[in-house]
């Protein structure tokens, strides 16, 4: 989230009395360190489509990529609203994070090079992407790259249980 820090709000209605708001840097750490994310997109008929994928946090923004023929890419062609989730998948420890926002395609060559490097830094050589014309790769092996422009990011702490909302305001 390459803009100002969000407005952070703690929701005591859904939290243990001893819980406190999750600080923004802790939420970013979970997004940065996650190995796997779940991306939800909206199908043309309005049904949700959920799929696991890898991704990177670059310049404090969540990024993912997808082939143009994949269901999530076809969904993004008509509706850019997405939800990205990650966390610990446990009840009483860790932090789960939910990012609600809009997927914005990244086509700038320097940005794509930086993101390709970020994938290698995080996942190793197995995930080395070549940068093509406005995407990773070329021809049949192309992947479109997206940044999530967040509207709200929720942090769900589990020890003690606490719900935090980080709200974003975007220019314009």
Automatic annotation (TrEMBL):
<keyword id="KW-0560">Oxidoreductase</keyword>
<feature type="domain" description="Pyridoxamine 5'-phosphate oxidase N-terminal">
    <location>
        <begin position="30"/>
        <end position="154"/>
    </location>
</feature>
<dbReference type="InterPro" id="IPR052019">
    <property type="entry name" value="F420H2_bilvrd_red/Heme_oxyg"/>
</dbReference>
<dbReference type="InterPro" id="IPR011576">
    <property type="entry name" value="Pyridox_Oxase_N"/>
</dbReference>
<dbReference type="InterPro" id="IPR012349">
    <property type="entry name" value="Split_barrel_FMN-bd"/>
</dbReference>
<protein>
    <submittedName>
        <fullName>General stress protein 26</fullName>
    </submittedName>
</protein>
<dbReference type="Pfam" id="PF01243">
    <property type="entry name" value="PNPOx_N"/>
</dbReference>
């Amino acid at each position: 989230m390459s803009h100002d820090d969000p407005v952070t709000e703690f929701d005591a209605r859904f939290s243990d009395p001893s819980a406190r708001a999750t600080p923004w840097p802790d939420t970013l750490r979970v997004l940065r360190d996650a190995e796997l994310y779940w991306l939800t997109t909206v199908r043309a008929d309005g049904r949700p489509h959920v799929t696991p994928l890898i991704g990177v946090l670059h310049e404090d923004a969540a990024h993912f990529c997808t082939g143009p023929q994949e269901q999530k890419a076809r969904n993004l062609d008509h509706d850019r609203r997405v939800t990205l989730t990650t966390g610990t998948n446990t009840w009483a420890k860790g932090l789960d994070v939910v990012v609600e926002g809009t997927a914005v395609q990244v086509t700038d060559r320097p940005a794509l090079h930086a993101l390709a490097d970020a994938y290698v830094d995080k996942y190793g050589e197995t995930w080395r992407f070549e940068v093509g014309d406005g995407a990773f790769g070329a021809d049949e092996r192309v992947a479109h790259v997206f940044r999530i422009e967040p509207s709200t990011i929720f942090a769900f702490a589990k020890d003690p249980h606490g719900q935090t909302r980080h709200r974003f305001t975007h220019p314009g």
